[in-house]
Amino acid sequence: MAAPGENLRINADRLWDSIHEMAQIGPGIAGGSNRQTLTDEDGEGRHLFRKWCEEAGMTVSVDAMGTIFAMRPGTDPDALPVYVGSHLDTQPTGGRYDGVLGVLGGLEVVRTLNDLGIKTKHPIVVTNWTNEEGTRFAPAMLASGVFAGIHDLEWAYDRKDKDGKRFGDELERIGWKGEEPVGQRKMKAFFELHIEQGPILEDEGIDIGVVTHGQGLKWLQVTLNGREAHTGSTPMPKRRNAGLGMARVIELVHEVAMDYQPHAVGAIGHMEVYPNSRNIIPGQTVFTIDIRSPDKKVLDMMDTRIRQGIETICDAMDISYEIEQVGHFDPVTFDKSCVQAIRNAAERLGYTNRDIVSGAGHDACWINRVAPTAMVMCPCVDGLSHNEAEMITKEWAQAGCDVLFHAVVETAEIVE
Predict the structure, then answer these.
(1) Main-chain phi, psi angles of 84, to 5 degrees
(2) d(C-alpha 333, C-alpha 339), whole Å
(3) Do the beta carbons of residue 387 and residue 93 sit within 8 Å?
(4) For 85-99, how does the pLDDT look when each residue is reduced to its tens digit (9 = 90+)?
(5) Distance (Å, rounded) from C-alpha 279 to C-alpha 267?
(6) Sheet with strand 284-293: strands edge to edge
(7) What residues are paired with 220 via a beta bridge?
(8) What does R_g of the chain's alpha carbons equal in angstroms?
(9) What phi and psi values does residue 147 have, to the nearest 5 degrees?
(10) Of the candidates 231, 205, 142, 248, which has an alpha carbon nearest to the alpha carbon of residue 351?
């Protein structure tokens, strides 16, 4: 198949302006974004995206999970479409680029094709997946998970936020519950552009990350039960301190992750302490362990060691424990031909590049199960993401979208 000429580039100013116009919807309090899934702000952002897609001549469809598919037709009505996209929903204190760059980068691919009058054999479909972040309705990557057959549709509809509101009800409330059955679409390939959300590319001065793998993940929710007692009058040897137990598990998780460097991480982010009073020894703690590795054997060994370590800690402290696995996906190996298309595009355009493993979960990780998939990454300042201070440069956005354009268009096959 013919590759686009190296002189073909996207309109960086238009992409940049679109990103910051979208950021005016659901603005954060410190310059970022707050468009949590199925809020009014999410609905408003969707309407703007649909307007832009229709102005670019695309046909917009919505499935029963609220995922938006905007299609630019190809010359062959029987050719499988090439899909491109990410998500528009954000964390409560999210940045302007996480997810948004991938959706609006896909739109910019189509806009640039229109500008240049280029036709492709295969249709190109720009996609906004619903609830990638999982911040309001757990788990993350919910709609792409239903699309890939990981989750049941009705189960997804029944997910509830902290106020007890159901996903399905909120999807209807904002008017984005489509009629199209979820998962019926067939894809030639799926490409996702994303900021790295880590420091490697910026630290090394590299323009493009060619994502070859995605880390596997396990979330273990742990409950430790000790005994509440007065902090002043209970002798130290008599204490059954669930807070101290949690502290020792935190150190255990760090030590286990360090033993499997450089391709393993682990931490405890979510922590609850009961009764959470300044003069009561904690009687219960509930916390979630997050461990990740691109190697399934390593992930499983970390899991085993952590479970054994928790048992040892609790036996020594005379406290009981429960462990529930509340999240999991195996490591992802992205499609070699799609990965090579991204690598070829970066080299053709003269951008420095290196292979990289995605440390975060993305919709591409689920779609990889049902279609050839790969990801492009660009740097972000200090590797900071899920934070209103998240920042990229226009030049980084252009490089990432240039590579996306070339990989997508080469896969969709230019019609001479």
Answers:
(1) -150, 140
(2) 10
(3) yes
(4) 999 999 999 999 999
(5) 27
(6) 265-274, 284-293, 216-225, 320-329
(7) 289, 325
(8) 23
(9) -55, -40
(10) 205
